[in-house]
Amino acid sequence: MATIGIIGWGVVGKATGKGFGKKHKIVWNNKNDKGSTPIEDLCGKSDFVFLCLPTPMRADHSGIDLSIMDKVIDKVAPLMASKNTPLIIKSTVIPGTTAKYAKKYPKVEFAMNPEFLTEVNAPWDFLHPDRVVIGALNEDVANRIARLHRDVMGYKFRIFTTDPTTAEMVKYMSNTYMATKVIFANEMAELAEKLGINYDDVADMVGADPRIGKSFLKVSPFGGFGLKCFPKDTVAILGLAKKLGTDLSVLQTVWNKNLKIRKVKDWEGIKGAVNNNL
Ligand SMILES: NC(=O)c1ccc[n+]([C@@H]2O[C@H](COP(=O)([O-])OP(=O)(O)OC[C@H]3O[C@@H](n4cnc5c(N)ncnc54)[C@H](O)[C@@H]3O)[C@@H](O)[C@H]2O)c1
């Protein structure tokens, strides 16, 4: 039995704790939570440490705000230097983030393990992944994290081991592709309405094609996409692309269209989605 430390005891942290808790001992820390294990104790006794912290968008939509992650890393990394304990970022962070931390703290075994669960079924999704992606800087760390997953979740899914930046990119391409599909569906629904035909019937027949799939073809009464992750992850990757001088005009149009058609900007009221509401 391993001891697993989890910092950030929210939706993802609790699902991770409940899942790995089936076979392992869990210790967790959450800001301002009296039940927390102090960070020093947690880092001292854990065989793996997962960071499940908020990574909100900036309120001006210019990109991601990594200040919570930066502060926690600056506290945790010195406690884990030369300990051979993987420090695993599970939060969604823009490509290059884990590599940047690894450069700053070369004696820490950093890894990146994006989470793909949905908020409505978080504990179940955690235990039943379609795939697990592990971005590690060496094979030993990748193997240890893979074994941890196999022990608890079995063998029904593929584990991809790669570098941290690739792992980060997988998460953003997944979320922004689904967000793009939602906006495309909204446009097709608008056209169907003009034609006097039933969009849901069209979507059923289109989604029956396995190359397309039925997810994210439904159109919400609020229009576009909301909640926490699609908006903040779209803004984060657009911010990164701008910094790197990469033309993501399709995704920029998707975000602009979402701002235009979404009747409630619900993410503005969700804790951890925008950096003015933490
Ligand atoms: N919610 C989802 O469906 C989902 C799915 C996949 C990935 N993610 C990603 O996982 C990350 C966490 O998301 P979440 O939904 O679990 O967020 P959350 O807000 O539910 O949980 C984050 C927790 O971290 C705590 N926290 C904040 N600052 C802290 C600090 N300095 N030290 C310790 N704890 C601190 C908060 O109090 C909160 O309980 C985000 O990057 C998110 O994008 C979320």
From TrEMBL:
PANTHER family: UDP-GLUCOSE 6-DEHYDROGENASE TUAD
InterPro entries named in the record: 6-PGluconate_DH-like_C_sf, NAD(P)-bd_dom_sf, UDP-Glc/GDP-Man, UDP-Glc/GDP-Man_DH_dimer, UDP-Glc/GDP-Man_DH_N, UDP_ManNAc/GlcNAc_DH
Family, similarity comment: Belongs to the UDP-glucose/GDP-mannose dehydrogenase family.
A Pfam short name: UDPG_MGDP_dh_N
SUPFAM superfamilies: 6-phosphogluconate dehydrogenase C-terminal domain-like (SSF48179), NAD(P)-binding Rossmann-fold domains (SSF51735)
Domain annotation UDP-glucose/GDP-mannose dehydrogenase N-terminal: ranges: 29-146
Limits of the UDP-glucose/GDP-mannose dehydrogenase dimerisation domain: 166-258
GO molecular function, one term: NAD binding
GO terms of biological process kind: polysaccharide biosynthetic process
Protein name (Swiss-Prot/TrEMBL): Nucleotide sugar dehydrogenase
